[in-house]
Amino acid sequence: MRNKMLWTLPVIVLALVLGGAIKTYAGTNEGGRGWLWGGSDGPASLGWVSMNNVDANGVVVNGAVSYGVNIPVIDGPVTGYAWSENYGWISFNGFDMTGCPFGVATRSGNILTGGARILSIKNGGANAGGWLGCVSLSGTATDGSSYGAIIDISTGKMSGYVWSDEIGWIDFSQAQVVATTVAPLPTLTFSANPLLVASGGSSTLTWTTTNATGCSASDGWNGIKAINGSETESPIMISTNFKLTCMGPGGSVEKTATVAVLSACSCSPSNANVCSGVSFISDQPTGCSPSISCTGTKSCPSSSNKWKEIIPTN
After folding, report:
1. Is-contact 307 269, C-beta < 8 A?
2. Pairing relation of β-strands 240-248 and 214-219?
3. C-alpha span between 215 and 220 (Å, rounded)
């Protein structure tokens, strides 16, 4: 890989102009902290790049404009903006990656994948040279070695280098990821009572949530549901899965309750012996429902066919 030299006053001016036009984000809501350094090309480098307008303790260090790069503390998309002293805004938003080959910036385990974008190169006159401003957050160099922005899982401290065709290597060793105020995941308790019913029977579904704003049903039932509720399902003809998904600002959770339908029994003795005027019932296996009483002239020896005399009628 070779660097493309880029250093003109119009580019700097353009970066500053873009700074006033781009929607920025409140720094205290973004988990990226510290600084990057892009200095491999001398005066054409990014120079110091601020990941956030607050320090590691959440104190605002530049109150004029709020910005920041949101690197989540768990796997997920990376979003927001960093600021280069020489080139202005660097976007980590997926909607700015059109035309770049690296994909959307994402945290995956302890590394960053996808790409970022130097917007002054993407949008400015310097792009006349075919430059795109794309930054690869991880990959393989021409010598076969791997590179990328790495996160220490236990401390949040970052290390490693990322690559820009126009700028060269960008050092992440003075950046870190901190926990921010993030909406908690919703929780869901979901049950059915009873879990075993006869064919055509009913079961009551009951659920409670926390940190949820809405729920929806699927599989054996459907529709929008309240965040806490109870509903009786009937008739249940076959064993059925009832799925409930609840959503909130912090994500979604789903659970399934299964209601089983028990097999019915029937009267079907097979031998020819006749027991006139006696009522009989099958010697049913455990869980057979409903019980079937068999009355009348039946084949009914007590020692065979799992049938027994229960009520003499004469």
Report:
1. yes
2. antiparallel
3. 15
Task: Round to whole Å and give the CA distance between 110 and 73.
Answer: 10
Kindly give the pairing relationship between strand 196-198 and strand 251-262: parallel
Cis amide prior to 194 (ω within 30 degrees): yes
pLDDT of residue 66: 74
| HEC readout, 221-272 | CCEEECCCEEEEEEEECCCEEEEEEEEECCEEEEEEEEEEEECCCCCCCCCC
Chain segment 106-149, per-residue pLDDT in tens:
988 899 999 999 988 877 644 445 678 899 999 998 889 999 99
For position 286, what pLDDT does the model report?
43
Distance CA 249, CA 210 (A): 11
Cα 145 to the center of its chain, rounded Å: 31
Which distant-in-sequence residues (6+ apart) come within 8 Å of 193 by Cβ? Answer: 203, 204, 206
Selected residue with higher pLDDT from 247 and 123: 247
Give CA–CA dist 288/36, Å, rounded. Answer: 70
pTM of the model: 0.49
Decide: 90 and 102 in contact? Cβ < 8 Å: no
Which SS3 state, helix, strand or coil, does residue 95 take? helix
Q: What SS3 class is residue 16?
A: helix
Share above pLDDT 90 across residues of the chain, in percent, rounded to a whole number: 27
Domains delineated in the chain: 9-177 (no CATH), 187-262 (2.60.40.10), 275-312 (no CATH)
Q: How confident is the model at residue 10 (pLDDT cuts 50, 70, 90)?
A: very low
Rounded CA-CA distance 87/109 in Å is: 30
